[in-house]
Amino acid sequence: LEHIDHDDWRNVLGTNLDGVFHLCKAVIPTMKSRREGVIINMASVAATDGYPMACAYATSKSALIGLTKSLAKELATYNVRVNAIMPSLTMTDAALGLPAETLERLVNLVPLGRIALPEDIAGVEFFLSSPDANYITGELFRVAGGR
After folding, report:
1. Rounded Cα gap, residues 124 and 14, in angstroms
2. Pairing of strands 140-143, 80-87
């Protein structure tokens, strides 16, 4: 927290929280009028675990969980389901940009012995958007290899 300035703080919250807010504001009226829809928010294990030197990120993802749970309750009577996925470190360009020793340390924290692949997350997204998940709303799905 001591090393982040206000502009960086706002940028992280703007990206991770405000972006979702504006997207939801745009799609919810149509979902309500159709009386169906699915919103899947991308939170993070950082929301509940916290990450050192990533206070803004963890805070933004925690707030996203609050938004997810609130919207799930607001929209349930319209048959609009809202859930969130909470992945741990996932093999993305950002992960590949980490120093090798940092990446190795993070992998060692995962009982499955690897970081998530994008398809690990996509499988959960596919399930949540399918008819098989018609009775699931307001839930958090931790995809973290046992971490």
Report:
1. 25
2. parallel
Burial (Cβ within 10 Å: 0-12, 13-18, ≥19) of residue 100: exposed
Summarised one tens digit per residue, pLDDT across range 73-100 is 999 999 999 999 999 989 998 888 888 8
Domain count, the chain: 1
pLDDT value at residue 73: 98
> Domain for residue 60, yes or no?
yes
Q: Which of 51, 57, 78, 135 is the catalytic position?
A: 57
36 falls within a domain = yes
Quick check: is 57 catalytic? yes
Residue range(s) defining the domain that contains residue 52: 6-143
Is 87 within 8 Å of 40 (Cβ atoms)? no
SS3 of 86, please? Answer: strand
DSSP H helical ranges for the chain: 6-13, 19-34, 46-49, 55-75, 93-96, 100-108, 118-129
pTM value? 0.92
SS3 call for 41: strand
